[in-house]
Amino acid sequence: MAFCNKCKTVSSGVFCGKCGSSLESSPKPVINTALQTAEAQQKKEKTPAKTQTLPILEEALKKNPSDSQAYINLAEAQMATGRLNKAFSTFRAGRALAPDSPKLLKCGAKILTALERKEEAIEALEKALTLESPAIDPSSLLLLSTLLYDTGRKQRALFWLQKLTDSPAQTPEAIIKIAQIHLSLGNPSEAQKFLNVYREMAGPGLKMYKLMGETMLARRFFDGAVKNYSEALENWPGDWELHLGLGKAYYGTGNKEAALKEFEAGIAIEEDISLLTEMGKLQYESGLEEAGKDTFAKILQKSDKTGEHLLAIAEFYLKHKKLSAATAYLKEAEILSPYHLKIRKLLGKTLTAQGKHVEAAKVFKDLLKIEPESRDTYKDLIESAGESANYQLQADTYSKYFELLNPTAEDWCDYGETLIKLEQFDKAQEAFEQAAETDPACIRAYKAPDLIAEQKTKSQARKIAQKGDEALENKLFLTAAAKYQEALDVLPGDETILRKLAEVYITTAEIGEAGNILTKLRAKKPQDPWLCKNLAAVYEAENKTRMAAELLSSYTADFPEDYEAQKNLLRLRRTQLVSSLIEPDMLTTVIKEIESFAKALPSDTADADLLKGYAAYLFSIRTRFQDKGISDARKYFGYALQNDKDNKEAKKGLILCERATGNVEKAAAIAYELAKNSPNEENIYRLAKLCENFGNFKEGRRIYANLRNKYPENGLYRKKFIELSAKEKTAGLPELKEMLTQNLKELQRPEVSIWTVYETAIAQELLASEDANPENSIKRALLTWQRAALHKDTNIWVTAAMSECQFRHVQDAQRESVIKRAVKAALSASADAPDSALAKLVLAQALLAFGDPMNDEKALKYLKQAWFLDRNLTDAGILLAKTARARGQTLIVDSVMYNVLLLEPELSNRLAN
Question: How many structural domains compose the chain?
């Protein structure tokens, strides 16, 4: 353990676990870090800087500002108390005064090493040692060689270290370093010679064994390390650090079982955090991930844990690309060691790697308060601010960066581009001029005028597009499309604006226009998820089923985890097959394909079982092996529920299986459970439709009543409640009559709710059969609908129900005029709400009422749009299929049928023939 001078606590590692300051000594000999090596050589020496307070040293420097020793004393004191940046400033000031002072240069080298500025440290040390030649300074030579070794210049490191081999000043540390370098250079015989010399010099003590073992581990000389630690344990069997080293050595040789035993033996002696860390790593890499996580969790409960301990775990997780886990440990480490630079830097980098640029920017911003002159941290903050589109923060950071550090021409150009994004074009021009002044050969600087002109054009286009965004937010789709098109006239081909225009066309079911834009965009981004899935939907709407399937197949090859895309692909593939030609081995092939890509899915997902279930259901339905296929589907959905008893997709799949085989009670039981656990509108509506389709009008009516009360602006639920009330003779019909009586009284008032008029008209038509003079009841219903149409709050539900009533009962000369008025009303509704599937369905129904081929073709277009907008609107799908069949377009029929099979399979019989 080591003592922290700053906060007066005992800790371990290079930095204090509480305040982050450099510790006075290291817990054990470590030779692979340059600064630790130099400190190990000098740890018994006390410099004046460590025995005097900072104020005294600062005062001494003020009194004698020309004394280089005063700078050295103050810089070393600042470094010892963790004030590395202040120490660097002091060294820099002293060097300006005495650039050739060896002592000052060596002091600066230690500071530069601590700041990870290795190249500058090497330059300072080489200059200092050259000035002192032929004198020998073992600690400086050792530090220099370690720096050279760490930066890959091993021969150069050996050159300087060999000055010690013939000198009386040679040290064991120097000898072991020479051995280490020879090992790395592939000279084992030379390395062994120096290891033997080291053994003779240091003696066979505990320290020698530990240091020798660590050296061997560092050089991956695992067999030698096993022998070394085993020999040491014969003499010191109760030393947990030897068990730790032997465990690492065994692990290096691949003997994980022996490594585990050594770690356990060490923990039995002392449950040290280092042992727990290695144990957790071993468990994790041996496939026992949960055990490894539990072992790491024990460290979190330790009172003596430090930021460095948690940093080691985080680095392990990063090695295995577990970024979320690494982030969690780094955040805990930051709390323990708030001034630890490496922890903060790594946390920022890890957040950046996860795309969490806003969080990363905050980390880097705080980090600059600790090291305000770090070029790398400024660069990191600039990058994070840019990635999070915080261009103002990016520009402000550039300004501070330029005040403290010398910007390059590239820095000025980057700054200029940031200012362009902020539309500060004059300042951007000045930045590019600074770049040209800094480097007259900078090509980017001379291209600036063109770039600024281009960005001004983009700015103009963005402002126009912003008006389109505002229109889109208010559902003014035609205005939005017009503005986006205007923006594209200014800036042709802009991907962002094209994408927005495509969104408008998709939302309003302008299928051809959407397809053209999506095709252009996908040429540049062929595997963009949004583009691929929407273009596949467009292809299907255009009867290009094969192209849709091929596109989704290509997309899911890169994104196998996209469950909805995989499910749609299964449906599209089934659509292309003729039921009578499907053989069981086709389904077997599909199941194997799912099992193949399932290997890339997370281990905790049930998606593979779900997809197998839907494959078995879709590929067997309407075939000679339907019973076996649906049985297999039930099995796969059951597997999914074993891992997650509330899996909604699995329950939906089981409901489909039971509905398809007519097992109504079981289907209803699962549907009730699903609606109870996930009481969203879709699940409740599907339950109501199940009851309705299978003749349970009483229960269906009850559920529609609940939906009507919960969603009072949805006319469908009101209409369904009344229709099922009329069919449910026992209680529903009497209640409906009572409701009509009350509504008729309500209609005597000058102002009445549109929904009262709406429900009255529907009830009047349905109860006409109960009237002695049904024709009079129908006439009253038609008059009530006229009142509804003239109501100030009339809506698409009114238009839809009124049109249906008129088409059923108005005949002869009046029929054509009624149809024309219905078409006009539906066109108006569709223009007001071009994103409404219902409006397009109503328009199609009105056009079909004409009964001629020309209007049937128009109706087909609107039915395609309605079905494109809402694949849950089965009425639109079924009418589309019937209309398409009459016109010989069987591909549409198949497409609709396999969609309906995933919604209300009992209705698919209407489409099969």
Answer: 4
